[in-house]
Amino acid sequence: MAKKITKRENDYSQWYLDVVREAQLASHSPVRGCMVIKPNGFALWENMQRRLDTMFKETGHQNAYFPLFIPKSFLSKEAQHVEGFAKECAVVTHSRLIHSKDGVSVDPTSKLEEELIVRPTSETIIWDSYRDWIQSYRDLPILLNQWANVVRWEMRTRLFLRTMEFLWQEGHTAHATEQEARDEAHRMLEVYRSFAEDYMAMPVATGIKTESERFAGALDTYCIEAMMQDGKALQAGTSHFLGQNFAKAFDVRFQDRDGKEKFVWATSWGVSTRLIGGLIMTHSDDNGLVLPPRLAPTQVVIVPIWRNDDEQSRVMEYGTSILASLDKAGIRAKLDDRDQYKPGWKFAQHEVEGTPLRIAIGPRDVDNNNVELARRDTMKKEIISRDGVEKMIPDLLETIQSDLLETARERTAKQTRQASNYEEFKNILDTDGGFVYAHWDGTAETEEQIKNETKATIRCLPLHPEKQPGKCIVTGKDSPYPVMFARSY
RNA sequence: CGGGAUGUAGCGCAGUCCGGUAGCGCGCCUCGUUCGGGACGAGGAGGUCGCAGGUUCAAAUCCUGUCAUCCCGACCA
After folding, report:
1. Of all protein residues, which has its CA closest to the C1' atom of B76?
2. How far apart are CA A128 and CA A359, in angstroms?
3. Which of A195, A201, A227 minimizes the C-alpha distance to A405?
4. pLDDT tens-digit map of A87-117
5. Which value does ipTM take for this structure?
6. pLDDT at residue A480, as a whole number
7. CA terminus-to-terminus distance, chain A
8. All domains of chain A in start order, with CATH
9. Tell me, in Å, how far CA of A343 is from C1' of B33?
């Protein structure tokens, strides 16, 4: 079984690539650093998208769409923002090809007056529009989201975790008051936290980024951080309080109730296809992908078993009725009736693709009015009565969902440690990795030193710090509370 | 972008040192037997050896360049 997948303990990176390939989620494309998302992977993304989209709508947001191309001049309007993205932008300089000896080449006469940047994120082009949309406090708040692709010219890429082009959603909101904008940034962080935990079954730490880790152009960046099986952290989502930086850069003002003209307050927030990488590295095992039922494209697969035509028709009739029951119960179920594959092959295939539940039915089961039920997460099998299927399966799927979260929580808890001095800190990172809480003196210099010496960064500071004074593990200076470090993806 | 490794059929690999016109396993196609954990037999298809130059009578093999992937650094969601 699962002979094509490298064991995690042997080579975690290779295991990850093997799972992505064998579960047919994505493959490398002819374009460096870009990926082809295959139907299995995209179906998973669609389920994530659908749920997130609902959550955005429930919190009062609407979808819109802004252009892929951003005039170069827009990007230079917010100084911090430019600095953050300048090194990783794709630039469109020409608009035409001409025939040449080797096929086609760029027509030098088609050079653009103003070059266009392929969006690395859309703050600038959106705030340019907001200037026209906002005159009065009555026009606020604006609560928009867009589903889009963005491009960041990365040096080193990994499928889903870091690709040059990726799919994401970016929320961009405009508010009359600072408090309202801060509340929005927190509200969306909470949406991300509950999506990660309740749907992905991926426990996350929430917190606030240090100055050096925060989004270019933001005053505060809030994040959800997840711990992967190999002890490395993954930034899974961010929500930014942008203050009035973009309003000032794009001159977006409104007249308030008091008659005065004021700059608008802003937030932005996003999660990307990187979440799929997090999902894989949270639950999957040496047999392949493990998917949480709430997001799995197929929640239950029915594998029929037969030896001859007579058995085939009996088993298929039985399977079809079970499929109908599951459909009625609102379960995403599939009857795998492909005749060219044997049952054993199908078992292995659905296993590697992460289908949460498998029902196997053969002539014996038809005679006894039974089904064989197998859980992907625990690999345990049991025989149950067919009559209980439509009642039991939905409950079992929810059990799997909560078991996955619980297992991941326990693992993350084991991977979360305290370090009281620098030696211990380094030792934990070099042996087990994971989240390490330690005292820090609050300076960027110390943060930088720790990063250079240990490769660990401050993943986040607590949102609601409790006083727990101590001494910085590097400088010995006073620290009000420990902060969370980890090596990260 | 720097250091190391790798690139040969859809996937995994051998062949490269010592140049002589490409092979193995899985998968794929046909037929038959099979079918409760990746079936078996027989027959068959599939590769400009990552790409581009060069050396040579002759290049998967030697030389140069380039691209991609993996690992390690710098950068990042």
Report:
1. A154
2. 54
3. A201
4. 888 889 889 888 876 667 788 899 999 999 9
5. 0.86
6. 96
7. 30
8. 12-283 (3.30.930.10), 300-403 (3.40.50.800), 416-486 (3.30.110.30)
9. 17
